[in-house]
Write a structure and sequence with these properties.
single chain; mainly alpha; 9 helices
Length: 185
C-alpha cells in the first residue's frame, strides 16, 4: 500500500502537521509516530521536521498578515515582551518544552515583531532536537529495543536544554539588571 499511495500519504501527513501548527488539534507525537511507522526512522524524522518547519512558516505568515490585529489582544503581553527582547532564544526555548502547543508559539511569533528568518531558524533548531527525541521514542515504541532509544533521546533533549536554560537565565538576568540601572539613573 505504501508504494501505491505514497503521494496520498505524504499529503495526508503534511496536512496533519499543518493543522497541528495552526490549531494544535492533533498531538505532534501522534504525527511523528505515523511518520516513523510509514517511512522509517530516518525518513520519518526528516519528513516530520520538514513538514513542521513548513507548517510553522505558514502559520507564522497567516497570523502575522491576516490575524495579527485580532490576536494581539489575546496573547499575554509578557510573552510578547520576552519574544521581542530575545526573539530567537525565546522561540528556541519554547520549541524545546514539550507541553507548549506549537500553535501558541506560532501565534505569539506571528503577532510579535520577530522577523521570519530568526523565527524559522529557532524553530528549525528547536524542532530538530525535539522531533529527534520524539522519533527515537516512536521508533522505540514500534520496536522491541525501546530502552536504548529512550536513553539516547533523553540525552539529546536534556543536555542542550540545560545549556540553553542556563544561557537564557544568565542573558535575561543581565538584561533585568541593566533595566534596573537605567530606571534608577
Amino acid at each position: 500500500m505504501l508504494e501505491e499511495e505514497i503521494y496520498f500519504l505524504l499529503l495526508l501527513t503534511f496536512s496533519l502537521m499543518l493543522i497541528q501548527n495552526l490549531f494544535t488539534l492533533i498531538p505532534i507525537v501522534g504525527i511523528v509516530v505515523i511518520n516513523i511507522a510509514l517511512f522509517g526512522l530516518v525518513c520519518g524524522y526528516l519528513w516530520s521536521l520538514a513538514t513542521s518547519i513548513i507548517g510553522a512558516m505558514v502559520a507564522f505568515i497567516v497570523f502575522r498578515y491576516w490575524f495579527q490585529s485580532l490576536l494581539i489582544k489575546k496573547v499575554k503581553r509578557s510573552y510578547l515582551e520576552k519574544l521581542e527582547q530575545n526573539g530567537f532564544f525565546f522561540v528556541l526555548l519554547l520549541r524545546l518544552i514539550p507541553f507548549i502547543p506549537s500553535s501558541l508559539i506560532n501565534i505569539t511569533g506571528g503577532v510579535s515583531s520577530i522577523r521570519l528568518i530568526p523565527f524559522l531558524t529557532a524553530t528549525f533548531i528547536g524542532n530538530a532536537i525535539y522531533l529527534l527525541l520524539l522519533s527515537f521514542v516512536a521508533n522505540g515504541l514500534l520496536s522491541a529495543d525501546m530502552e536504548g532509544y529512550v536513553f539516547v533521546a533523553l540525552l539529546v533533549a536534556i543536555l542542550p536544554s540545560i545549556y540553553l536554560y542556563r544561557y537564557l537565565k544568565q542573558k535575561t538576568g543581565i538584561g533585568e539588571n541593566q533595566k534596573r540601572k537605567i530606571r534608577g539613573s
